[in-house]
Write a structure and sequence with these properties.
By secondary structure, the chain is mainly alpha-helical. It is built from 17 helices and six strands. The chain has three domains: 1-90, Fumarase/aspartase (N-terminal domain) (Fumarase C, Chain B, domain 1), CATH 1.10.275; 93-251 and 267-346 and 418-430, Fumarase/aspartase (Central domain) (Fumarase C, Chain A, domain 2, Up-down Bundle); 350-411, Ribonucleotide Reductase Protein R1, domain 1, CATH 1.10.40. It has a two-stranded antiparallel sheet. A two-stranded parallel ribbon has the order 3-4. A two-stranded antiparallel ribbon has the order 5-6.
């Protein structure tokens, strides 16, 4: 991933140095496991632990000749170890090292992503509590519906990222599978206890495999990343809508000295939200490649390998960046309570239509008759201007007799829509 959308801690997991260091540790642990079972001399295992190392430049130079990354690596490591190096890679195949390393990397990447989700949740919880009771108009199809609160919005964001955390935890547990079982996964040249020893040291699980760990695990991981990115995009889109000039209820942070446009000095654009939406598309796109990697020929082909060199580093680095962006957006956004109330009032009481409808049905009118009576006044409010919706209801003598002044006041009281706000917060984990 380009540096613009990368953060150091996640990026470092995918560096060439980090990858080869993990390869080396797996090879060393396998030798130590074999020494423990007296398959190889213990003194040789100690020598391997002491002397084994690699030189990246030499590995790359070797690969120009071998056209095989693992063999190029093993040649360089053996050159540093001496005679004991003959035990390195005993009974193993390349994918034993590659897949175990990938599981290790993805497990650690998931830990960073889970930490990022928890920061988003913490920011959402803070804002949900802060904005409890802050009335705003809810919208369906982009049209005024009924009142809600900005606190409920933020509680729902918190709830969604509780699920995001659960998905990432499940994906981390599913992907954390190591494999040291040889060319077609039958342990023909290496006892399963060697795999168990290495996996235990790395906090991975051993699992059944062919030459490779089945790629449905990896597809599930990529899909979990895509779902989390989709949730981030959903809320970024909401913030973008709320920042539109005509809405103006929310504004993302705008730093001192920040510029919104090269041409128009007045601009304060929702660039964080737009960036999140754009990057989420890339993360989702990588899930397609992960799904197509599931179907490999026989015990293994290599078609998945090239795709995975790109998709997993890029998807995890991007989602890490997205989560950091979203956390800053949620924590730092400005909520304009006055503008929310102004927007609530701009539809001139039409949000009370369902309350009036229900009041009439409770008073004995058939639902169709009540609906048509309320809709008549609602459409007049939309199209004719003049009196607002509540005034029109009050001025209708038949409806006034049916509902009564108290019933009408109850139907048109915006605060009744927040009666269960605390319950919603509790159900959202707050």
């Amino acid at each position: 991933m380009i540096p613009r959308y990368s953060r150091p801690e996640m990026t470092s997991l995918w560096s060439e140095e980090a990858k080869l260091s993990r390869w080396l540790e797996i090879e060393i642990l396998a030798c130590e496991a074999m020494a423990k079972r007296r398959i190889i001399p213990r003194k040789d295992a100690r020598t391997i632990r002491r002397k084994a190392k690699f030189n990246i430049r030499q590995v790359h130079k070797n690969e120009e000749r071998t056209r095989h990354d693992v063999l190029a690596f093993l040649e360089d490591v053996a050159s540093h170890v001496g005679p004991a190096g003959r035990w390195i890679h005993q009974g193993l195949t390349s994918s034993d090292i590659l897949d175990t390393t990938l599981a290790w990397q993805l497990r650690d990447a998931a830990d960073l992503l889970i930490a990022g989700v928890r920061k988003v949740k913490a920011a959402a919880a803070l804002r949900a509590r802060k904005h409890r009771g802050m009335l705003t108009i809810g919208r369906t199809h982009g049209i005024h519906a009924e009142p809600t609160s900005h606190g409920i919005r933020m509680a729902l964001l918190h709830d969604e990222f509780c699920r995001a955390e659960e998905r990432l935890v499940a994906a981390r547990d599913e992907i954390a599978v190591g494999k040291l079982s040889g060319a077609v996964g039958t342990y023909a040249h290496l006892d399963p206890s060697i795999e168990a020893f290495v996996c235990k040291k790395l906090k991975l699980k051993p699992g059944a495999a062919t030459q490779v760990v089945p790629r449905d695990r990896h597809a599930a991981f990529a899909l979990a990343l895509s779902l989390v990115a989709a949730s981030a995009e959903r809320w970024a889109t909401e913030f973008r809508h709320l920042q539109r000039t005509e809405v103006g209820e929310v504004e993302e942070p705008f730093a001192k000295g920040q510029k919104g446009s090269s041409a128009m000095p007045h601009k304060r654009n929702p660039v964080n939200g737009e960036r999140i939406c754009g990057l989420a598309r890339i993360v989702r796109g990588h899930a397609v490649a992960a799904l197509e990697n599931v179907a490999l020929w026989h015990e293994r082909d290599i078609s998945h390998s090239s795709a995975e060199r790109i998709l997993f580093p890029d998807a995890t680095i991007l989602l890490d960046f997205i989560l950091n962006d979203l956390e800053g957006l949620v924590r730092g956004h400005k909520a304009d309570a006055k503008r929310m109330l102004a927007n609530l009032g701009s539809s001139r009481g039409l949000w009370a239509s369902q309350g009036a409808l229900l009041a009439l049905t409770r008073a004995g009118l058939a639902r169709r008759e009540a609906y048509e009576a309320v809709q008549k006044h609602a459409m007049a409010t939309w199209l004719e201007g003049g009196a607002d919706f509540t005034t029109r209801l009050e001025s209708d003598p038949e409806l006034g007799r049916k509902i009564g002044k108290k019933g009408l006041q109850e139907a048109c009281n915006a605060l009744r829509h927040l009666r269960h706000e605390k319950l919603i917060h509790r159900r959202c984990g707050l």
